[in-house]
Automatic annotation (TrEMBL):
Residues 97-289, 332-429 form a coiled coil. It comes from the Eukaryota. One of its GO terms (cellular component) is chromosome. One of its GO terms (biological process) is chromosome organization. Keywords: Cell cycle, Cell division, Coiled coil, Mitosis, Nucleus. GO terms for molecular function: ATP binding. Pfam families: SMC_hinge. Residues 444-544 form the SMC hinge domain. The lineage of its organism: Eukaryota, Viridiplantae, Streptophyta, Embryophyta, Tracheophyta. This is SMC hinge domain-containing protein. It comes from Vitis vinifera. InterPro entries: SMC_hinge (IPR010935), SMC_hinge_sf (IPR036277).
């Protein structure tokens, strides 16, 4: 205490009220200012066990009141030459605190123990305050989490309803489009069937025409072969016709000549006949005259000879002309017959030629018609094939569109199933959360679900931590088995969904192997990537989580 000396008052008193308490403690209770005045007036008074007093205005400073005394010069020098330790001993001896050293040490030890207990109590209090603060923060965070969960559920519900409405609208629209496409597809199929029937009919007609064309081509080929075979004969006939025509021309010329000669001969014969008739008439006239006259005409010998000669000459000329006439008549008849035969042959050949020309013209016309019809049918067939390809393309496009809509409907149905599953899962989570909240209200030992107690430090670990914990992610952490059994009993009574409970007092897990932290690479312990309350630390197994993409493969160590 002397070491804490601050002030040394010499020859004066503190300006305090006499009844003011300025020091407490010690064996004598409390001392007031008037007692301090007495101490200053009587320094040898031993009423005080200590000359050190605590001033409550300047704690824990010490003011040492020195009494008025007269010391010798040697005493002052002796005191001045002492070292601090000796001075301390002297002061303790003067103040009387040496007698209280043992008590002081005991009290110091008690003080140390009290300070230690106080520190422990303070530490405990601080821990309790921190835990209370943490619990309060956890409560606020849990309330905020529940509030945000409710908002999230509401937003998810609205979002899913909105998506469901859009999906239903999409389904209705797709169904309408699908019905329109089916109707269009049916029309296209009917049109395709009609085109196929027409194409089949056109193919049959084409086959028929091709068959006829083949037959006509065969006939034309046969005719051409026959014409080729008859070509020499035709040439012969043409030559014969040319020869006959030449002969006919010469015969006609000869005939004309003979006719002219015949005409001349006929003229001569007619003239001779006329002369003969004139002579005969003259003779008859003469004979009549003779007979009428009754006088027989007597000719002289010379006249009779002349008469006979003339008669003989006339008979000879007449016989010669008659023979020539008969010969010319026979020759004319032969030439006429030959001419008739030649004309008949010529007419027959001409008719045959005209017939062949007509047949050839007919065959050429028919061939042309057949070729024109074939070209037309080929064009029609090409057009029908083009129409058929267009119909097939339309049908293929319709099928593709139908398949596309079918896939779209399948995707929408999958999304709808996922939404229903998500809604069912959300409803299940809501029921589980509500059940857990009820259990927490009813049973003090219920701490909550693992999903509420454990939070990954980063979002990329969410899926990985969920996979690592597996079925225990939704497990409920309770204090002991009794609480878990009571919770199970309550769930059965209320017919709520079954849940998994983890009792903290009886759970046993393997200790963490610290060397696993040195594996390096992308693996980390689940213990190191989640935040959780200290009380549930014993329930975590030793798992590793690969870093990188969220939801990476988990390695159980």
């Amino acid at each position: 205490m002397v070491g804490d000396l601050i002030y040394v008052l010499r020859g004066h008193r503190p300006s305090l009220e006499e009844d003011s308490v300025f020091w407490k403690g010690g064996r004598n209770g409390q001392f007031k200012i008037k007692e301090a005045h007495s101490l200053l007036a009587n320094p040898n008074d031993t009423a005080f066990p200590s000359r050190c007093i605590w001033v409550d205005r300047v704690p824990p400073k010490v003011t040492f009141f020195s009494w008025e005394a007269t010391w010798g010069k040697g005493d002052v020098e002796s005191i001045a030459s002492k070292n601090p330790k000796e001075l301390t001993g002297l002061l303790e001896q003067i103040s009387g605190s040496e007698d209280l050293k043992k008590d002081y040490e005991d009290l110091e030890e008690q003080k140390a123990r009290a300070e230690e207990k106080s520190a422990l109590v303070y530490q405990k209090k601080r821990t309790i305050v921190m835990e209370r603060k943490q619990k309060k923060e956890q409560k606020e965070e849990a309330e905020k989490h529940l509030r945000l969960q409710e908002q999230l559920k509401s937003l998810k519900k609205e979002h899913f309803l909105w998506k469901l409405l859009n999906i239903e609208k999409d389904i209705a629209k797709i169904n309408e489009d699908l019905e329109a496409e089916n109707k269009s597809r049916e029309d296209v199929i009917q049109e395709q069937e009609s085109c196929e029937r027409e194409a089949s009919k056109a193919k049959k007609e084409q086959a028929k025409y091709l068959k006829e064309i083949t037959q006509f081509e065969k006939k034309i080929s046969d005719k051409n072969n026959k014409l080729d075979k008859n070509q020499p004969e035709l040439l012969k006939l043409k030559e014969e016709m040319s020869r006959i025509n030449s002969k006919i021309k010469s015969s006609r010329k000869e005939l004309d000549k003979k006719r002219e000669e015949r005409r001349k001969h006929a003229y001569d014969i007619e003239k001779l006949r006329n002369d003969l008739q004139d002579v005969a008439k003259s003779l008859d006239d003469v004979n009549e005259k003779v007979q009428d006259g009754g006088v027989k005409l007597q000719l002289a010998d010379s006249q009779l000879k002349e008469y006979n000669r003339i008669k003989e000459d006339a008979g000879m000329k007449t016989a010669k002309l008659r023979d020539e006439k008969e010969l010319l008549d026979r020759q004319q008849h032969a030439d006429t017959e030959a001419r008739k035969n030649l004309e008949e042959n010529l007419q027959e050949l001409t008719n045959r030629k005209e017939e062949l020309d007509s047949q050839e013209e007919q065959m050429q016309t028919r061939l042309k018609n057949i070729l024109d019809a074939s070209v037309k049918h080929k064009k029609d067939l090409t057009q029908e094939k083009k129409d058929l390809r267009e119909m097939q393309d339309k049908l293929g496009a319709s099928r593709k569109k139908h398949q596309k809509y079918k896939l779209r409907i399948s995707e929408i149905e999958d999304q709808l199933r996922e939404l229903k599953a998500d809604r069912h899962e959300n409803e299940r989570d809501a029921r589980l959360s509500q059940a857990v909240e009820t259990l927490k209200r009813l049973f003090p030992g219920v701490h909550g679900r693992m999903t509420e107690l454990c939070r990954p430090t980063q979002k990329k670990y969410n899926l990985a931590v969920t996979v690592a914990m597996g079925k225990f992610m939704d497990a409920v952490v309770v204090e002991d088995e009794h609480t878990g059994k009571e919770c199970i009993k309550y769930l059965k009574e209320q017919r709520l969904p079954p849940q998994t409970f983890i009792p903290l007092q009886s759970v046993r897990v393997k200790p963490i192997v610290e060397k696993l932290r040195t594996l390096g690479g992308t693996a980390k312990l689940v213990f190191d990537v989640i935040q959780y309350p200290f009380l549930i630390r014993p329930i975590f197994p030793t798992l590793t989580i690969p870093e990188g993409a969220p939801g990476g493969d988990l390695q159980l160590l």
